[in-house]
Specification:
heterodimer, A: alpha/beta, Rossmann fold, 5-stranded parallel beta sheet, 4-stranded antiparallel beta sheet, 8 helices, 11 strands, 23% helix, 20% strand, globular, disordered C terminus, B: alpha+beta, Beta Polymerase, domain 2, Cytochrome-c3 Hydrogenase, chain B, 5-stranded mixed beta sheet, 3-stranded antiparallel beta sheet, 15 strands, 41% helix, 19% strand
Chain lengths: 282, 525
């Protein structure tokens, strides 16, 4: 007992005060990629390199439409490596959670040069986290759940990478309980389902049942590239794709896996506790 | 190899056709038929070999047959021997080995489910990977498209084996569990507190991974390997890359080999540390888990600094690693390791000083060495039960031949000793990383990109933190794979949990399960 106390005294307070204080990131941390649409000369290398199909293009009548889906991005950095131009670069941004799936998708159109590169930018949508972060779930839910929240985590088919980071939310560094948030053993006790994916064919029914067992009002959060879109697994004979293919989703948290601060950001966003513009890490 | 092959020919003149060593240290023996029963017995008894894995391949379009592959290794010999047994497409069946060799029970049933090849004489031939409600499809056959849309799921219809008697009950648990863990169904048959029998139902997270490997470009496939079991992303990625590198004769530069070794060991430390805390937590010693969680963050911070990812993703690649390290980064390794070393010793001291914790762990969930051997248990769980296997030592790869380390082996086989193996291994890993970082060679960190020639087969194997991870690939045209077999150690080790639960009480299930800490996703793929 003495040893335990001695250790506790010598360690002191370990908790990082996120989100009041920005997350401590190493210089090497890879967040999401960023695209300078004005300067982007050629999307083809990035499209070819992207392992999850987060960047796709279609050429038609001398016009190229490029779509970037942060809901599929696994932050691997291959697009930056392959593009070899300033316009595509990795950032340390990770707070991309949103209430609207469409916020994670950027589209841009270029007039094409005959050599296949971009001649001129025709149109582009704005990036995630600029206007949309802070969009709120219904106010009534916040009043009801804002001060204390019970989360039931459901693994609907993940590789267990997301589970690792969700477990880390309860360690002394991230300590999710300081927000009055705790993980419960049954969906019947839960206000929020925190669901990882892709939803497999073999888990679909269990997920539906867990959702039905959760009392109203309830919030569903889809975690990670696979939970949002099926990620690298996409949809196939055994995978239904993202969580919203099976049950309605209120908040999406990108990442592969999302780091604990990204999870916290998304969960707090669902509760309306994140200020409109979250701290950015450019 | 020649004498070995001639001897085999002498014993099995009708069955054994030829031997080929397409990759150094990987001998493939071509057979004439699918009945390998006597040959396998010969391998196990005369050569004292171990059956590592069994899997199938659809070569009907190319060669008119299916193949079953039986991979063996043996103590003291770094090479692999692979039996290649053809199965006629008009007689899609093969004799089962499961009655004699429980370790192939699920693997043979996978072959039944995925390829439609019937395992004749299997003691429990029911479906395993595709649940009972699935239509009659065989997804790994080449004529089955990946994106086939199957009818709506109508619910599990699996019938568990009944148990009757006064006061005998079933306790069904899962697939959605109480903790933050992966989905699986456990059906306990109990009489009061003690468990009579445990039935497992897994493959809830089956997501078509092996089929998907045949449908994406090789460069992307590395990321898929990282997503087979997220807690072993780097080990799975490395085993996959090794298989490709051997198939295509790509030489990984020494610097990259050392970098990979350091990262493989960091993955081991991170997971062993969290298991140490989790095992303590499952018997109510919460403070130890808090320290372990804090320590794990320290390790993950180092992982992030070295790879950009806390969980080591996006680093390994075919031919080496994706990013080089500056000298300043290498210096941080030693700095952080000293802290990790100190903190881990404190953690172990706290756990070991707690008598109540020890009492719960000692003699709990005992896996006897003879059972472990029979069931083909590998990795941490095997080494706690006398199974002296470690891929790093037995089939050396990356920088391990240059680094001294010892392999802890105990014969007690209880939860306490599965914990002890982890504790010993963390100490060893720290020494391995120190030595590797201290002798990090200069030079390139990645072999130049090259085309991967088609129709080459090779095997890659890595000792992940949980145990032996094996990949077997056949390369295809256009930078794609024809076949990719993934064998996570969890697939071997689940039967051990069934075995040890008998006679233990329900309340000890969480800690016993945690002491194995198997990957559902790695099993289900």
């Amino acid at each position: 007992m003495f040893k335990i106390l001695q250790k506790a005294m010598s360690v002191g307070t370990a908790t990082a005060d996120y989100p009041r204080i920005a997350a401590r990131l190493t210089d090497q941390f890879r967040g999401c990629p960023e695209f300078d649409f004005d300067a982007w000369r050629d999307a083809r290398p990035a499209v070819a390199a992207c392992p999850t199909g987060a960047i796709v293009l279609s050429d038609r009548d001398g016009v190229r439409k490029v779509t970037v889906d942060y809901g599929r991005c696994i932050y691997c950095g291959e697009c930056e490596q392959a593009s070899n131009e300033e316009a595509v670069r990795m950032t340390r941004r990770f707070e991309l959670a949103t209430t609207d799936r469409r916020d994670l998708v950027l589209t841009t159109e270029y007039k094409l040069h005959p050599d296949g590169r971009h001649a001129a930018l025709m149109s582009a949508t704005s990036g995630p986290g600029v206007e949309q972060v802070g969009k709120r779930v219904e106010a009534a839910i916040h009043e009801l759940l804002g001060r204390s929240l019970s989360i039931r985590q459901v693994d609907a088919g993940s590789c267990n990478g997301c589970e690792q980071e969700i477990v880390a939310l309860s360690n002394p560094i991230h300590d999710i309980e300081r927000f009055g948030i705790h993980f419960v053993a049954s969906p019947r006790h839960a206000d929020m389902l925190l669901v990882t994916g892709p939803v497999t064919r073999n888990m679909e029914l269990a997920l539906r049942k867990a959702w039905a067992a959760t009392p109203d009002p309830k919030i569903v959060v889809a975690v990670g590239a696979c939970g949002i879109s099926g990620g690298i697994f996409g949809t196939n004979y055994a995978s239904m794709g993202g969580v919203d293919a099976v049950i309605p989703v209120d908040v999406y948290i990108p990442g592969c896996p999302p780091r604990p601060e990204a999870l916290l950001h998304g969960i707090l966003l669902a509760l309306g506790q994140v200020p409109r513009r979250a701290a950015s890490h450019r | 190899m020649t004498t070995f092959f001639e001897e085999l020919r002498e014993h099995f003149p009708e069955l054994v056709v030829s031997a080929d060593e397409p990759v150094s240290g990987q001998v493939t023996i071509q057979l004439t038929g699918s009945d390998v029963t006597d040959l396998v017995r010969h391998f196990l008894s005369v050569y004292e070999a171990r059956l590592v894995t069994v899997f199938a391949e659809d070569r009907v379009k190319a060669e008119g047959v299916f193949y079953n592959y039986y991979v063996f290794d043996r103590v003291g010999d770094p090479s692999w021997v692979i039996l290649k047994a053809p199965i006629a497409s008009d007689h899609p069946s093969f004799p089962s080995l499961a009655a004699e060799l429980p370790s192939v029970n699920w693997q043979e049933r996978e072959i039944q489910d995925w390829f439609g090849l019937q395992a004749i004489g299997h003691p429990n031939p029911r479906r395993v990977a595709l649940h009972d409600n699935w239509p009659d499809v065989h997804p790994l056959r080449k004529d089955f498209p990946l994106d086939t849309v199957l009818p709506q799921f109508e619910g599990e219809r699996h019938v568990f084996r009944p148990a009757h008697g006064e006061g005998v009950f079933h306790i069904p648990v899962g697939p959605v569990h109480a903790g933050i863990i992966e989905p699986g169904h456990f059906n306990f048959t109990v009489a009061g507190e003690p468990i009579l029998y445990l039935q497992l139902r897994l493959f809830y997270t089956h997501k078509g991974t092996e089929k998907l490997f045949e449908n994406i470009a090789l460069a992307r496939a590395v990321f898929l390997a990282e997503s087979v079991s997220g807690d072993s992303a780097f080990s799975h990625g490395t085993a996959f890359c090794q298989a490709i590198e051997r198939a295509a004769e790509i030489r990984v530069p020494p610097r990259a080999q050392f970098q990979r070794t350091i990262l493989l060991e960091l993955e081991r430390i991170a997971n062993h540390v969290s298991d140490t805390g989790a095992i303590a937590n499952d018997v109510g010693f919460v403070i130890a888990n808090a320290h372990a969680g804090r320590l794990r963050e320290l390790v993950l911070g180092l992982c992030e600094m070295l790879t950009g990812s806390r969980v080591l993703r996006g680093m390994v690649t075919i031919g080496g690693v994706r990013r080089d390290w500056q000298q300043t980064q290498v210096e941080v390794i030693e700095e952080t390791l000293s802290k990790v070393d100190r903190e881990f010793r404190d953690l172990v001291m706290i756990v070991q000083a707690s008598n109540s914790t020890r009492e719960r762990l000692e003699h709990t969930g005992i896996l006897r060495p003879d059972k472990a051997l029979l069931l083909g248990i590998v990795g941490v769980a095997g080494r706690a039960s006398g199974v002296d296997l470690d891929t790093r030592r037995d089939h050396p790869y990356e920088a391990y031949p240059h680094l001294p380390f010892s392999v802890p082996v105990y014969r007690t086989g209880d939860v306490l000793h599965r914990l002890q193996v982890r504790i010993d291994e963390v100490h060893e890993s720290i020494q391995i990383i120190r030595a590797a970082a201290g002798h990090l060679p200069n030079g390139p960190y990645r072999a130049p990109a090259q085309r991967i020639p088609p129709n080459r087969c090779a095997l890659g194997a890595v000792e992940g933190w949980r145990g032996e991870i094996v990949y077997w690939v056949r390369t295809g045209e256009g930078d794609c794979l024809e076949r990719c077999k993934v064998k996570d150690p969890s697939l071997n080790n689940w039967p051990a949990i069934v075995e040890v639960m008998e006679g233990n009480i329900v309340a000890d299930f969480p800690v016993i399960n945690k002491s194995f800490n198997l990957s559902y996703s790695g099993t289900d793929r």
